[in-house]
Design goal:
Elements (H helix, E strand, L loop, with lengths): L6 E5 L4 H12 L3 E6 L17 E5 L5 H8 L4 E4 L13 H18 L4 E5 L10 H16 L4 E5 L2 E2 L6 H10 L3 E4 L5 E2 L2 E2 H13 L9 E4 L5 E2 H12 L5 E4 L1 H11 L9 H6 L13 H4 L6 H9 L14
Parallel strand pairs: 1-2, 1-4, 2-3, 4-5, 5-6, 6-11, 7-10, 8-13
Antiparallel strand pairs: 9-12
Helix pairs in contact: 1-6, 2-3, 3-4, 7-11
């Protein structure tokens, strides 16, 4: 591996998306600083690179000096911080999706960072949920502080350890039925986590700087509704469950109780988000503009959903 002379700070690098980005950055030889609240959570990433190539750094996202210290002397910065549900005053959508990204962008501008890539969310410009609105507000805050930032808007992200297919596959193990919220008509364009990481690498490495200040919509080759997502889940897990239509109003009532769990299965805001399709807008910049060919769900899902089969991954003979 040829070592790069470039240093990248990745905020939220110990998460699902951040971990994949770090693995690909390491493969390209970048020096990587993983800025995270709990550095120990990133220790398992260190073997992905050479000795000393990946360095977990404790970062207090509430402290401007801590953020600045984490990205000081870095050429590039990537922000993967995000939440799917709020938890108390310390973890609100506004704080995580707007305030912290704004602080990171300001620190990038003040410390001469060349490129800043921010992971947002597809549909944030049309969504009515609090999640979507704060994602969009975060983009605006970043652009004001660092106009050259590259914004990536991925649709639902899938891959090993995802919080989407794995959650529904787990529910299918013990739930008597699976819900079709709002009739299951919401459309998604699921994107493979590896392709999201490819997009980050493109934004950091393309030589002409054409990605600076641009927003890219990231979606896979398949557009599916919730019923079709369940069908793929059943196909690759070998399990089937009845599907029950759940009106939005009733789903929000159910979410009042489910949101009380330590890790909520469903929140009212997530129900609200299902009222908006999460697909690429016409005329938007996409993977095609990056020269990236996104992988379909049928190529990736069988690799990790087979663990949910009765008897596990060895329950069937290899074809």
């Amino acid at each position: 591996m040829t070592m790069s002379n470039k240093t990248v700070t990745v905020f939220g690098g110990s998460g699902f998306v951040g971990s994949q980005i770090i693995r690909e950055l390491a493969a390209k030889g970048f020096m990587i600083k993983v800025a995270t609240r709990v550095p120990e959570r990133a220790y398992d990433l260190k073997p992905c690179g050479n000795v000393g190539q990946i360095i977990p750094i404790a970062c207090n996202y509430n402290n401007d000096e801590s953020i600045e210290s984490a990205l000081r002397d870095s050429d590039y910065v990537v922000n993967c911080i995000g939440i799917l549900f709020e938890r108390g005053k310390s973890s609100t959508f506004k704080k995580i999706h707007v305030d912290i990204p704004q602080k990171i962008a300001q620190a990038c501008a003040e410390n001469g960072v060349d490129r800043f890539v921010h992971i947002s969310a597809l549909g944030c410009d049309t969504g009515t949920s609090k999640y979507a609105k704060t994602k969009l507000a975060g983009e605006d805050a970043i652009k004001n502080a660092f106009p050259a930032a590259t914004i990536l808007r991925p649709s639902v992200i899938f891959g090993p350890k995802d919080n989407f297919f794995n959650m529904f596959a787990s529910l299918s193990l013990y739930m008597p039925f699976l819900p079709l919220i709002g009739g299951g008509k919401t459309k998604f364009q699921p994107v493979f986590v590896g392709n999201v990481a490819d997009a980050v690498l493109y934004a950091l490495q393309e030589k002409k700087g054409e990605s600076k200040g641009k927003t890219y919509h990231l979606g896979g080759p398949d557009i599916v509704d919730f019923k079709e997502i369940y069908q793929k889940l059943f196909k690759y897990t070998g399990r089937t469950k009845p599907l029950v239509n759940l009106p939005f109003a009733f789903a929000k009532f159910e979410a009042l109780f489910l949101s009380m769990l330590p890790k909520p299965l469903l929140t009212s805001d997530q129900v609200e988000s299902l009222k908006t399709d999460v697909i690429i807008s016409q005329g938007a910049l996409t993977f095609e503009n990056m020269g990236i060919h996104p992988k379909s769900m049928d190529l990736i899902l069988p690799l990790y959903l087979k663990m949910y089969r009765s008897g596990g991954r060895f329950s069937q003979k290899t074809a």
